[in-house]
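On to our target:
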Amino acid sequence: QVHVVESGGGLVQAGGSLRLSCAASGFTYDAYTVSWYRQAPGKERELVATIEIPDNSDRYADSMKGRFTISRDNTKNTVYLQMNSLKPEDTAVYYCNFGGRFWGQGTQVTISS
């Protein structure tokens, strides 16, 4: 059975940091490119960052470059999103996605000003 579970969200002040985790099971984890998306209230879901296979090259939306880092630990079937210098506009539900197929339920990130 496929499971994709995000965690690590919370409430932090602007300028702070969070590290999100996305744990996967029930499928061949390392066969998929992984992306983080986010969706703020009243807005469309947007792509945050992607980590490719097999070379783990990464890319980011412009507003996240230099602040966010995506990484993966294949020994733990887990993908991470390190978020630094957080801003109130980063407030959203963050989701991870495997190869456009498998989604998690999301984790709420709230940044106070």
Notes: The two ends are 40 Å apart (CA to CA). The mean pLDDT is 96. The CA atoms of residues 2 and 26 lie 4 Å apart. The chain is about 0% helix and 50% strand.
